[in-house]
Amino acid sequence: MNSFEFSQNRRRFLRQISLGAALFTLPGAFAEGLLTPRQTEGPFYPDHLPLDTDNDLIIVNDALSPAVGEITHLSGRILDVKGHPIRNALVEIWQVDNNGVYLHSKDTHAARDKNFQGFGRFLTASTGEYYFRTIKPVLYPGRTRHIHFAIKMKGREKWTTQCYVKGESQNEKDGIYRSIKDEKARSSVTIDFAPVKASHVGDLAAKFDIIMGFTPEA
Ligand SMILES: [Fe+2]
Predict the structure, then answer these.
(1) Distance 144 CA to ligand 1 centre (A)
(2) N or C: which end of the chain has fewer CB within 10 A?
(3) What is the C-alpha to C-alpha distance for residues 78 and 89, in angstroms, rounded to an integer?
(4) Per residue in 181-192, pLDDT tens?
(5) Per-residue pLDDT tens for 26-50?
(6) What is the pLDDT of residue 1?
(7) What's the average model confidence in pLDDT over 77-89?
């Protein structure tokens, strides 16, 4: 397959996956009237953005070697306080690679996986949905597994949070995680990374809905 065909196939694949994500239903978090807790941005938002900032963190541009890690289809919706989807929200994620290293010039404690994009963006449409192909986050010194999120909207301050892996024993020892005192708020950012039944290669799926504490002006 030449690189043009490869990237065409990849685009088709990403489109199919995101259409699949549209069939997911609204989970319980909104029904409980919960707002997603904000969490610190932390020190490792990329100081130099990668050349490729799309929503597939597994392949940088048209590279032939994918990132190392447990492939995860991460999706969810950006919702307002009434449960309506928010469109034109720029969803950004960043996380460590499989060696526990951020895409940041100050993170030099191990060798970085050059095939991992480390950062990605997705602009929501009218359904409020986002989708990323990434890896299940790993532990790094001092933190439990987590993925950073920033939501950027015109005329609003940048809003940041982090999501966590359900069942990870390090969660309870993590100071930033524990700073969310409310049990329900804590569980709203602690999500399942579950095997995709149709996948023969062990892909995972994770769903994280973000409920913002406001209603956008029409
Ligand atoms: Fe972090």
Answers:
(1) 9
(2) C
(3) 8
(4) 999 999 999 999
(5) 444 455 568 999 999 999 999 999 9
(6) 42
(7) 95
> What's the CA-to-centroid distance between 146 and ligand 1, angstroms?
6
Mean pLDDT of 65-75: 98
Nearest CA to 118 out of 165, 51, 187, 18 is that of 51
* CA dihedral (29, 33, 35, 37) positive or negative: negative
Give the phi and the psi of residue 75 in degrees, each rounded to 5. -140, 170
Backbone angles phi, psi at 12, to 5 degrees: -60, -45
Q: How far is the CA of 7 from the centre of ligand 1 (A)?
A: 30
pLDDT in the model for residue 76: 97
What are the phi and psi torsion angles at 168 (to 5°)?
Answer: -75, 120
* Ligand 1 centroid to residue 45 C-alpha, Å: 9
Enumerate residues 6+ apart whose C-beta is below 8 A from 218: none
- What's the gap in Å between 140 CA and the centre of ligand 1? 9
